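Notebook entry, structure prediction.
Reason for the run: the old model in the group folder had no record of what sequence produced it. Starting over properly, with the input documented here first.
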Amino acid sequence: MTVRLRSHHLLCLLTYVGKGYSAAFVANYDVIAKRLGRGEDILIVSGPDDICRPLLGEAEPHCLRESAAGRDELAARDVGKLLARPIEAGVRLSLDAATLAALRAAFSAGVTREACQGCEWASLCSTVAAGGYRDVRL
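New structure, fully documented this time:
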């Protein structure tokens, strides 16, 4: 199987510690983190992805807003530079240990954090990164 992810969720996954918008969102995210931890590959998509799924029933899901699309663009650019490959819809990749380590090092150094500006979870993610990624679920 393949996990469908939008670009900025490549960054969100790095610091996911089981907190989220709702119990359904967290339960879904936990399943996705386990799948990725077992080595499932990722298909980059444009717009809402597998992580967004529990939010799509809301009246105005934030994952459909322009701010989410802007985060995708910034994350795709920064992660693409880091991994020396394009990150765009249709690209497949896997998060092996070396790739996760490189992404986390860059995140901690602020290299891939431009997409996080204005995100309500940015301070939590900064705390998780500063703590050495303890308790992350991937």
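Summary: The radius of gyration is 14 Å.
The old model has been moved to the deprecated folder.
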